[in-house]
Specification:
single chain
């Protein structure tokens, strides 16, 4: 017990706030992997729509400009999602320092 706090209060106000920056970093990495998995599943699981399917089709048709454009769009999408999450992290945990 810290200064008479219960275990719940100690967890809520000390342990959780100390672990929150690492939890959010893990979530940011998981979001990146989720985007990658979603694109790969669209490419190889027989989807009719989506960026992954369009990338696969342009690769099969040897349409290089379309392929590179779709890869660029996917990259920009991933960067935007990551930057949005970093912005939310900074708003939620200002005590964690610069990311």
């Amino acid at each position: 017990m810290v200064y008479g706090a219960t275990k719940i209060q100690s967890f809520k106000w000390i342990t959780f706030y100390e672990a929150l920056p690492q939890i959010l970093v893990g979530m940011r990495i998981a979001i990146s992997y989720a985007l990658l998995a979603e694109i790969m599943c669209e490419m190889f699981m027989g989807s009719n729509f989506g960026i992954g399917q369009k990338i696969y089709e342009s690769n099969v048709k040897l349409s290089t400009p379309e392929l590179f454009a779709l890869v660029a769009v996917t990259s920009v999408l991933g960067i935007l999602i990551n930057r949005m999450f970093v912005f939310l992290e900074r708003k939620m945990i200002p005590w964690a320092g610069k990311l």
